[in-house]
Amino acid sequence: VSASIADARRHSQRAHNFSAGPAALPLEVLERVRADLTDYQGRGLSVMEMSHRSAEFIAIAEQAEADLRTLLSIPDDYAVLFLQGGASLMFSMLPMNLSTAEQSLAYALTGHWSVKAVEEAGRLRDVHLVEDNRAAKHADMRDPAGWEVPSDAAYLHLTPNETIAGIAYEDRPATALPIVADLSSVILSQPLDVSRYGVIYAGAQKNIGPAGLTVLIVRRDLMRAVDGLPKQLSLKAHADAGSMLNTPPTFAWYMAGQVFRWLLEQGGLAEMGRRNTAKAAALYAAIDASSLYSAPVAARWRSRTNVPFTLADPALDERFLAEAGAAGLVNLAGHRSVGGMRASIYNAVEQASVDALISFMHAFEARCA
Ligand code: PMP
What we know:
The structure is a single chain. The chain is α/β, with parallel strands linked by helices. Helix content is 37%, strand content 15%. The chain is built from ten helices and 14 strands. Helix 3 packs across helix 7 and helix 8 (268-289) packs parallel to helix 10 (351-368). It is globular. The chain starts with a helix and ends with a helix. Bound molecules: 4'-deoxy-4'-aminopyridoxal-5'-phosphate (PMP). The site of 4'-deoxy-4'-aminopyridoxal-5'-phosphate has 11 residues, from helix 4.
């Protein structure tokens, strides 16, 4: 009994954190990391203080990769890379590594992050847009099955979950091109068929671990030596060096490994998919049933990880956020470019936090009526 009281108290000190990223991490992971912080498994030093080439760290790094491979059933002909520079550096590195200057690239522009990806690719190559939903303010889009993908582009780039607008899709257009996907805000939220992609990449700071780490899953035959490319910008050079071309973000890599282990203990990605579907369904149902709140994204493209919603009267936004904060519900403000609210409900955000948000939203609506 006393253990469960202690447990409840610990949980109660934790905010219900709906941050879009850096986002909530599982409490169990944070506590394991704290237990290891000053003395990693009797070595007398922290993981932060170890050489990345030490046997201890190599074991941590290899275990993290092995667990990620298990979680996603990553085929052997794919390399896993643990890099720095964020998803944003990949907006430039992917065109540099996967295409020649003469080739064009195909991109689906569906939200803020694909706009950034298109901008950066456009500095280097001709970019053909297979979709552009700017006129719909990224709240609706055409069915991917109808997108026309040019056959001579080097690859097709997708952002299947737009973190800011909260628009998401699982369909893929018909194409023989390798698909390059920015899965920053959706990776590990449900099972994924890696073999459908040429490259998957994600900034870690949502569903993987702390910021400072970028995870890539790359079909090996797509990586090649590119003439004149600085080594630090070469995916092949990073892959050949086992992501240790220079000092990798060791602590973030270790924490990602702890998150992968936690995901396996939870039952893997099928279980996370069930939980995430239930969380999103409950939250959208509450929004749809209310006359104060509404969800701007067309129903069929609603993201299950990032749930934007607006209040009928934007003058209430500030009060909503202040009272939510007082109730322990934090990081609910929509992105500064869109306003309104956004609840990001990644793996580490439990159903109990979503339930607390829904209860608060009901009570707030009643108070405002
Ligand atoms: N792509 C997506 C879908 C994102 O959500 C983000 C960050 N929120 C980025 C790219 C940029 O990632 P980073 O800050 O790691 O460069």
